Amino acid sequence: MANIALSRPARFRRATGLALALGVLALMGMVFVTLFGALTLQTGNTVSPDIFHLVRMSFIQATLSTLFSLMSGMAAAWALNRLSFPGRHILISLLATAIVAPGLVIALGVINVWGNGGWINQILTLFQTRLPGSIFGLHGIVLAHSVLNGAFAAHILLTRLSNIDGQKLKTGQSLALSPLQRFRVLDWPVLSGALPPLASIIFLLAFTSFPIVLLLGGGPANQTLEVAIYTAIRFDFNLNFAVSLALVQVGICTLIVLPALLATPSIASAGRPAAPPWRSPLLAHIAQIIVLVLLSIGFVLPLLTVIAKGISSDILITLSRASFWKATATSLTLGITSAFLTVFIAMRIAMARSQLRSRFATAALSLPLFAYLVMPSLVLALGFFLALRNLNIPPTLGAPFVLIIANVLLALPFTFAALAPALSAIDRRYNKLARSLNLSGFERWRYVEWPLLGREIGLAGALAFCFSLGDLAIISLFNTAQFTTLPWAMFRAMGAYRTNEAATIAALILLLCFAIFWFLPGFIQRLAKKC
Fold it and tell me: Which CATH number does the domain 1-28+313-531 belong to among 2.60.120.10, 1.10.3720.10, 2.60.40.10, 3.40.190.10?
């Protein structure tokens, strides 16, 4: 009887996770069929000669962004892993927060630092010189992506380095390994496994980037597929061309995302990883300090400039506008709803995955979680836009549901990466004990998993909320006078040259992301331990 009773929770978990995974897959299939149907129903030329230029530029900027992000992320992780100094945990938290900083805010921060009127040029003016050229163009896109995705890479790689066995470090120290020898013998084996899937994810994030390319592209020469889709719909209403671009993008992303499915890097919080007791030579120690200072400026300074400029601007004027509070209420409602649904779906699929022993089965169950990487938010927006159009549903009614669905799909890969490894570890350690105690599914969750998963659940919720809060792609197609969000209000303010208002909104978005990302994991962890 015990085995029968115990098998029911396991079967229920597998069935629930499978149903949710199939639901996500069916949703993506519906979007794809809608896009393909719209393409076949349209008349005229379906492929523009410019499509090859768009694909080429998308590949160029994504490749460069990936290379620079990995190099800067690895350098930052290396320096942080070796150094111990006051405020180290704050810097690590800032790197973690930069992961979820909205792309539009990062782009504005890069302009504040490196633009014609940015901080760097203001300092150089004192010496009667200026930076050559403009921040707008391919180099600006790559710089902004390196700030955003470099921090993402640094956080993951630092976690890997911090998990090196202490006994190995002691042995390496006793053998007097040089910095190069330590990197080759101890560091590289733990980093190399994370690099291929990490590179795949960063490449896809850069390949499908929308707000950064839109703001820093500088014209058609640097236009990518994502921006071209937006232009074709928003300005030309050329659905034929937009659908063609969307299908090309889906096909390319599907081929690229396969390596990421083999080994998803965990983005579980590194907490406050202590610097290992490793005595570096003087020259290596100096190099670590220089690298850390330069990369900290590159990663953190754009965020600080956004906050400084936003708070010093006419913040009271912005706060007095009813439109601002309406956009804030909409963004918060969408963010909270999306976060709850994302954590629920990721948790249920992770629970089902922990009950499977076949590597093929676990990979197949995880496949729908990568839906956003295959079909990015703007492509999803186009699919839903066409579906609502076919059903004669006004955009105002459909926009909230489309935004929530797209935000859930956007955050699922990252929330799953935060929850799945911890849940699998709990299952390996406590599964036999739970069976021997004949715990039901709910009892197992309440007494075993919930107390141990508090921080990971809080991290997953913070990731989902912040990703939702910063989305610009979906709202760019569905916004109306009655329905708008903070990112779109910021973008409109920039387009209308209300720079002070845009700066204030950007600062408030960033501060809200900081607060949620720092507060929620610890709060949920304390709540889980009390219950």
Answer: 1.10.3720.10
Per DSSP, the three-state class of 75 is helix
What would the DSSP string read from start to end of 204-244?
Answer: HHHHT--HHHHHH--SGGG--HHHHHHHHHHTS--HHHHHH
Give me the tens of pLDDT residue by residue for the chain, a chain 531 residues long: 444 444 566 777 888 888 888 888 888 888 888 888 776 655 444 445 578 888 889 999 999 999 999 999 999 988 888 888 887 877 777 777 677 778 888 888 899 888 888 888 888 888 888 888 788 889 899 999 998 888 888 888 888 888 777 777 778 777 777 888 888 888 888 888 788 878 888 888 888 888 889 888 877 778 888 888 888 877 777 778 888 888 888 888 877 766 555 545 555 444 445 555 667 778 888 888 898 888 878 888 888 888 888 887 678 888 888 888 998 998 999 999 999 999 999 998 888 887 776 777 777 777 777 766 777 777 888 888 888 888 888 777 777 888 888 888 888 888 887 888 788 888 778 777 777 777 777 778 888 888 888 888 988 898 889 888 877 777 777 766 667 888 888 888 887 878 888 889 989 998 888 888 888 888 888 888 876
Q: How far is CA 298 from CA 109, 113, 114, 120, 289, in A?
A: 10, 9, 10, 12, 14
Contact yes or no for 260/200 (Cβ under 8 A): yes
Residue extent(s) of CATH 1.10.3720.10 domains in the chain:
1-28+313-531, 47-305
SS3 call for 62:
helix
Q: Which CATH number fits domain 47-305: 1.10.443.10, 3.30.460.10, 2.40.30.110, 1.10.3720.10?
A: 1.10.3720.10
